[in-house]
Specification:
heterodimer; A: about 120 residues; mainly beta; B: mainly beta; six-stranded mixed β-sheet; 11 strands
């Protein structure tokens, strides 16, 4: 079946502009995660949605970052007034319903490479 | 908070066995996972350990010792295609369903 998809695959923007990154999770998956990965680094947790519960926003680095998930499916990560330090690959992942599959098995999309000039 | 430590890079030859260690600190440990990421690719799930012991999946095995806050990923019969970054990640029941990832170990397999 189709995996997690993200768009755009690459985004180049100018400092100070807003950007929106989109994630389409695997159909039927109830949890959705956003991570950020700088070159040669690990994955930095940003935000997590589980079903209809309030999202866990504890990883968002500043109030310039926000995310929403519409209809329990598609998610958009928005970065306002982008800064050069926001340049990174933004990864989205989804996970099956609790009790299905391995507990920590997340399915990742290919990522969006964001470059802020 | 949580922290994980793993070596930044490991080199091995084709056909050999390599072990990538991970030590962690977290208050409400729930489980340890391993993910593989090829250059420019998406991370893919390899294994999950919640209980002490060894879990084997083909050429890859993962081990956990909760008392030592330690785990490792063992790769046998190394192949060139195993060259990738390997991340350990912990889940913490105080942190809901999110994963905290280590910085990754870059494995280079030489002929």
């Amino acid at each position: 079946g189709a995996g997690v998809s993200q768009s755009p695959s690459n985004k180049v923007t100018e400092k100070g502009k807003d950007v929106e990154l989109r994630c389409d999770p695997i159909s039927g998956h109830t949890a959705l995660y956003w991570y950020r990965q700088s070159l040669g680094q690990g994955l930095e947790f940003l935000i997590y949605f589980q079903g209809n519960s309030a999202p866990d926003k504890s990883g968002l680095p500043s109030d310039r970052f926000s995310a929403e998930r519409t209809g329990g499916s598609v998610s958009t990560l928005t970065i306002q007034r982008t800064q050069q330090e926001d340049s990174a690959v933004y990864l989205c992942a989804s996970k099956r319903r609790p009790g299905q599959g391995a507990y920590n098995e997340q399915f990742f999309g290919p990522g969006t490479r964001l470059t802020v000039l | 908070g949580q922290s994980l430590e793993q070596p930044s890079e490991v080199t091995a030859v084709e056909g050999a066995i390599v072990q990538i260690n991970c030590t962690y600190q977290t208050s409400g440990f729930y489980g340890l996972s391993w993910y593989q990421q090829h250059d420019g690719g998406a991370p893919t799930f390899l294994s999950y350990n919640a209980l002490d012991g060894l879990e084997e999946t083909g050429r890859f095995s993962s081990f956990l010792s909760r008392s030592d806050s330690y785990g490792y990923l063992l790769l046998q019969e190394l192949q060139m295609k195993d060259s990738a970054s390997y991340f350990c990640a912990v889940s913490d029941y105080n942190q809901g369903g999110k994963l905290i990832f280590g910085q990754g170990t870059e494995l280079s397999v030489k002929p």
